[in-house]
Amino acid sequence: DVKVTQSSRYLVKRTGEKVFLECVQDMDHENMFWYRQDPGLGLRLIYFSYDVKMKEKGDIPEGYSVSREKKERFSLILESASTNQTSMYLCASSLTELTTDTQYFGPGTRLTVL
Amino acid sequence: SQQGEEDPQALSIQEGENATMNCSYKTSINNLQWYRQNSGRGLVHLILIRSNEREKHSGRLRVTLDTSKKSSSLLITASRAADTASYFCATVDGGSNYKLTFGKGTLLTVNP
What we know:
The complex is a heterodimer. By secondary structure, chain A is an all-beta fold. Chain A has strands at about 5, 10-15, 20-25, 30-40, 40-50, 55, 65-70, 75-80, 85-95, 105, 110-114. In chain A, the strands form two sheets. In chain A, strands 2, 4, 5, 6, 9, 10 and 11 form a seven-stranded mixed sheet that branches. Chain A has a four-stranded antiparallel sheet with strand order 1-3-8-7, with no helix packed on it. Chain B is mostly beta strands. In chain B, strand 7 (about 60-65) and strand 8 (about 70-75) form a beta hairpin. The radius of gyration of chain B is 13 Å and the shape is globular. Classes of the chains: A mainly beta, B mainly beta.
């Protein structure tokens, strides 16, 4: 079974802090994704990566950056956390770039920025 | 931007009843997928239907797709309390490669 793990289930940070959210997948998937999920807004794509060191902006990249130095690991970085970045963050991966590929999700990180 | 929109936003039924959720979308799609999310957890893929398919089954799940109406429905038959979850449709746009766009979800509650 594919396993996608996220470094923390719950995280509390202060405004202005630099925040790292880590995601690791163990199935040699090419693509990895970061979403945020907010009540009433559903899931929105922040960034995705289709290969090591390759990334593309999603729908809401402002205030975020990403890093993919190794195939299995995709990091989301909040350079200077703000209260409007309080949200549930979900990481996902898929095997290839084929549109029929399933995305496998991690359990999520609930981030609170005070 | 949001592509799929689920309807209803919330649905409450008794165990054993069928649950039907609908999804509408705006642009041409490559395929449409349904995912389930248990409270506070990640999403789990349920079923995928391609744009040239009209109906697909998987266990107690039945998905239909009407590309002329730009809509899909997910039917869960003989529901169980364990089916309580949020259900999301996600579309792959016709011009996209692997980017999924999710709707806001339907919260299904199955009462024992």
